[in-house]
């Protein structure tokens, strides 16, 4: 039976980490352990987009005390200087000398099933480590509704391959299938989820933080995510990613079938992303495009760093002085631009606003005699 440990809100962090490691990782001495935080991009710790340096530091310190050989690393979603991003996020300092640029050494892996004609490069540490400790943070995600432990393993894929994979699987359902396929390359043995603050709204970088003060440990990423989705007030089977992982027998999502220590602290009135209707409609593929919201760039917030344009594999973001613009004929609503924008300048409108805008543009076209 799988095991989940949900610490009490506000419990002392180091004691919680020691308890989770003693329960789930009894003999780490001498093992090469890859600690995999969420290091999405150049976000400061207070923004709550990346794994809290406090959580990472407690885990690394506890493992070093237990004589483990630790490697901390992640491949950010944006191109650029990995070490610089690690410094901004606080991950470099929190790693206590164990941080490595894991994007340098890669191994080719052939995917399976409907993706069997695709070979991708992943960080070699993913295959070489004796143990993997997955260290996600709990957030909403505009495309996949939530991001936690399963999606965190997408960070094992370096460089621009991630945005290339988005173009192969633009809908929420197909992307969920692809993420689960990538996760299945080698599921991590242990998960320690940072739910000190939980992001609601348009995550994974543009939402708002809700304080919770909880850490969730577990021996299966799918089950830990199932607990995470319940904190958000959503049943796990309503999250495409978890539905797919369960279908592939990669983990239990019914908490009553797991050994759960602690209570699930449900956050009241939790806000899901603007794109939620499209994510649900994705089950009926023909409806997905109708309900998908398209991003907008807020000119007052944009600092013209160009990260969104460099990340967009559909080349839908065009630099036109004085700003960047989105070509909606090219946009596939993957929301990578919103994910990487360091200033929350890429906005996802609410579905009601999106539909009203479309009706407005339709009438405008008709009154101008356009077809
Ligand atoms: S929208 Fe964001 S990522 Fe894009 S150029 Fe502006 S600030 Fe940079
Ligand atoms: S503009 Fe943004 S949402 Fe549209 S395809 Fe590019 S990265 Fe994806």
How would you characterize the overall build of this protein?
This protein is α/β, with parallel strands linked by helices. The chain has 2 domains: 3-261, LarA, N-terminal domain (Rossmann fold, 3-Layer(aba) Sandwich), CATH 3.40.50; 287-367, 2-Layer Sandwich (Alpha-Beta Plaits). Helices cover 33% and strands 20% of the residues. The protein is built from 15 helices and 15 strands. The longest helix is centred in the C-terminal third of the chain and has 17 residues, at 351-367. It is globular, with a radius of gyration of 20 Å. The relative contact order is 0.14. The mean pLDDT is 91. It binds iron/sulfur cluster (2 copies). One iron/sulfur cluster binds next to helix 14.
Strand content: 15-25%
Average of the residue pLDDT scores: 91
Within CATH, the superfamily of the largest domain carries the name LarA, N-terminal domain
Name of the level-1 CATH class of the largest domain: Alpha Beta
DSSP strand tally: 15
CATH architecture verdict of the largest domain: 3-Layer(aba) Sandwich
Q: What percent of residues adopt helix (DSSP H or I)?
A: 25-40%
Number of domains: 2
Which descriptors apply to this entry?
about 375 residues; alpha/beta; Rossmann fold; Alpha-Beta Plaits; 2 domains; 9-stranded mixed sheet; two-stranded antiparallel ribbon; binds iron/sulfur cluster
Question: Which SSEs are present, and which pair or pack?
Answer:
Layout: E1 3-6, H1 13-24, E2 32-37, H2 53-65, E3 69-72, H3 82-89, H4 91-94, E4 106-110, E5 119-123, H5 125-128, E6 131-135, E7 137-141, E8 145-147, H6 149-152, H7 161-168, H8 172-183, E9 190-200, E10 208-218, H9 221-231, H10 240-247, E11 259-261, H11 276-281, H12 285-291, E12 296-297, H13 307-311, E13 317-320, E14 323-326, H14 336-340, E15 346-347, H15 351-367
Parallel strand pairs: 1-11, 2-3, 2-6, 6-9, 7-9
Antiparallel strand pairs: 1-10, 4-5, 7-8, 9-10, 12-15, 13-14
């Amino acid at each position: 039976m799988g095991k989940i440990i949900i610490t009490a809100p506000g419990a002392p962090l180091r004691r919680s980490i020691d308890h989770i490691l003693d329960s789930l990782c009894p003999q780490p001495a001498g093992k090469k352990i890859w600690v995999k935080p969420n290091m999405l991009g150049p976000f400061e710790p207070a923004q709550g987009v990346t794994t809290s340096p406090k959580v990472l530091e407690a885990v690394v310190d506890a493992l070093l005390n237990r004589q483990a050989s630790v490697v901390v690393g992640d491949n950010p979603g944006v191109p650029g200087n990995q070490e610089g991003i690690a410094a901004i996020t606080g991950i470099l300092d929190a790693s206590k000398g164990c941080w490595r640029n894991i994007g340098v050494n890669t191994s080719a892996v052939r995917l399976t099933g409907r993706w069997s004609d695709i070979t991708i490069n992943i960080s070699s540490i993913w295959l070489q480590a004796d143990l993997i400790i997955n260290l996600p943070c709990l957030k909403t995600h505009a495309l996949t509704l939530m991001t936690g432990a399963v999606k965190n393993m997408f960070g094992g894929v370096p460089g621009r391959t991630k945005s290339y994979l988005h173009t192969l699987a633009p809908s929420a359902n197909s992307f969920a299938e692809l993420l689960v396929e990538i996760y299945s390359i080698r599921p991590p043995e242990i998960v320690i989820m940072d739910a000190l603050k939980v992001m609601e709204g348009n995550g994974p970088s543009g939402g708002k933080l809700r304080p919770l003060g909880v850490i969730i440990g577990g021996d299966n990423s799918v089950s830990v995510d199932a607990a995470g989705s319940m904190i958000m007030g959503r049943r796990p089977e309503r999250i495409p990613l978890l539905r797919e992982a369960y279908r592939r027998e990669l983990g239990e999502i019914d908490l009553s079938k797991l050994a759960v220590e602690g209570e699930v602290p449900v956050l009241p009135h939790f806000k899901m992303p603007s794109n939620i209707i499209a994510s649900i409609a994705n089950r009926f593929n023909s409806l997905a495009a109708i309900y998908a919201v398209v991003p907008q760039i807020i000119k007052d917030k944009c600092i013209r760093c160009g990260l969104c344009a460099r990340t967009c594999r559909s080349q839908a973001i065009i630099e036109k002085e004085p700003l960047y613009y989105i070509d909606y004929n090219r946009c596939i609503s993957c929301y990578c631009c919103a994910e990487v924008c360091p200033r929350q300048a890429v906005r996802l409108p609410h579905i009601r606003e999106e539909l009203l805008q479309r009706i407005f543009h339709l009438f405008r076209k008709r009154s101008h005699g356009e077809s």
